[in-house]
Amino acid sequence: MELRQLEYLVAVVEEASFTRAADRLHVTQPGVSSQIRQLERELGQRLLDRSGRTVRPTEVGATVLEYARSALASVAGARLAVDEYTGLLRGRVAVGTVTMASELDLPGLLASFHRRHPGVDISLRESSSDELAAALTAGGLDAAVLAPAHAPPPGIQLQIIADEPLVAAVSRDDPLALSGRDQLTLTELADRTLITFTHATGTRGDIDAACAAAGFRPRIAFEASDPRVLARLAAYGMGVAILPEPIARDHPDELHVLFTHPAICGRLALAWREAGAQSPAARAFLAHARTAFRTPA
To answer: What is the dihedral of CA 113, 117, 121, 122, to 10 degrees?
Structure first.
């Protein structure tokens, strides 16, 4: 029995396909099939059910799969421990981000970490704040930039890395723009069509709470997770967009910006799991990110 065979078994089960497993492992499909058959001959049992449209583990295969994953994890842990001891950092770091984090230089952060630790593989995925928090909790991500809700999910630690005002933005031919005003009260938006973030973002919760405190329920007609989409909708005169000030300022010829009273602030946070084993690579990335993303004063 070889570790390679166990790795192939895990990949085939997770991908439910020999072909997709081969693509994931960067080997040929016949090579994967051959190694799995060799493992089955050695154990004297069929490990995979190939009769359906997708490949599934047999009852025996499901039991072997648990040991295979454990063995692979132990080997990976041993390698990481040796690398950490010798100062050669290797491993993988999975990072997530919300779309509205575009104003942060996350690519620059990832690039600087890669230059410092070229042996670490880095991946990045974009999703909603709720999904990123769930992935952190489940261990699918090591760190994420998200818009936090009022109370962070259990087991998740946060470092606030951006706390910027949200502004109201309207097209240049909107009455609010033609008036020349640069401020308005939240209650003035009670009868206006609003354009803002989806419920999946923590920022939407801040907006809803501010409107509730002002005594009205917002009339939201358009929702998006990308603030650039919100800006474009407002520029076309579809309503009043509530979005981060830097995004609104990026469209000076199309949007008129007004500050709200009371002010609404949009926050972004670096998030990570409070408990559970973190790989040396993940610990190094968190230290790098927490230093780069200083908590705003």
So the answer is: -10
CA-nearest of 154, 224, 136 to 145 is 136
> Is position 297 within any domain?
no
Measured CA distances, 91 to 7, 37, 170, 241, 285 (Å): 16, 30, 47, 42, 11
Q: What are phi and psi of 121, to 5 degrees?
A: -85, 130
- Print the domain residue range for 211: 161-267
pLDDT greater than 80 at residue 244: yes
Query: What whole-number distance in Å separates Cα of residue 245 and Cα of residue 263?
Result: 12
Query: Three-state SS for 231?
Result: helix
Query: 255 and 168 in one domain?
Result: yes
The answer to the question of residue 206 being in a domain is yes
Number of structural domains the chain divides into:
3
- Mean per-residue pLDDT, 2-8: 91
Q: Is residue 127 part of a domain?
A: yes
Structural domain contains residue 201 = yes
Longest Cα–Cα distance of the chain, Å, equals 82
Q: And the tokens for 202?
A: 């923590």
The residue type of 290 is: R
DSSP 187: G
